[in-house]
């Protein structure tokens, strides 16, 4: 949704932007190339590999970009270090990247065999294998039910408990096949039976929902009057957090909502990039007097 971001950010073309999930630098690069101004951008990412790619992709604008290898929950630490007290716009693009999905060794996908990892930040100690092989039954059930909205959570967890009693579950394909066996019915499915289980584990490994809540509650204090807070989400749990947070702020007069309903990708973008189908963008504008 690059065009939508540029449309809303263009009036801040000379401001300071915070890209909380810079990834490969795609959104930041387009903003720097397209906006007729002198904006500067602070980019954060917890994925060291993504940050390396962003550094290369943004080398023509290195005098206007500062990159930091850090989770966006620590955005206040970075801004304070840089003596930045106000930002004019911030962007969160929440979710797993294609680079992470396509690299089997990162363990995010069941399409190729890899270690059951799923860490966005390799410095973190907890992997998906840790959760699958050591967490108690009720906690596993909660994770699959709450984070994956998996209606067969209890059956899947019981299968996990039984399997791990024999051998450690160490690969993505092992877990995917285990979940697939729980779904014994032969109905044609648009998605793999393990999709929700993998989503739930990824969210748990990276503490994604709590991190999003904490980061939003921090960044709002840095956004200047009339500044923008833009969040792109890819599933209902994240979108619900953003929706509820924005509405609470609006009720307190802290922001006004530029998107009463979330913006979604154009038909053209969805044809070009099918993964964009589930994207939802919400934008809030900071009030001048709060």
CATH superfamily of the largest domain: Vaccinia Virus protein VP39
Distance between the termini: 29 Å
Enumerate how many helices there are, as a single number.
Answer: 13
Domain module tally: 2
Q: Which fold name is given in CATH as the topology of the largest domain? A: Rossmann fold
Q: Biggest β-sheet: count, sense, barrel?
A: 7 strands, mixed
Look at the structure and give the CATH class of the largest domain: Alpha Beta
User: Radius of gyration, rounded?
Assistant: 20 Å
Task: Report the sheet-strand fraction.
Answer: 5-15%
Question: How do you describe this structure in short?
Answer:
The chain is an alpha/beta fold.
Structural write-up:
It is a single chain. By secondary structure, the protein is of the alpha/beta class. The protein folds into 2 domains: 2-99 and 208-286, Rossmann fold, CATH 3.40.50.150; 103-206, Orthogonal Bundle (DNA polymerase, domain 1). It has 13 helices and 7 strands. The protein has a 7-stranded mixed β-sheet, with helices on both faces. α1 packs across α2 (26-34) and α11 packs parallel to α12 (236-251). The longest helix has 16 residues, at 236-251. It is globular. The mean pLDDT is 92.
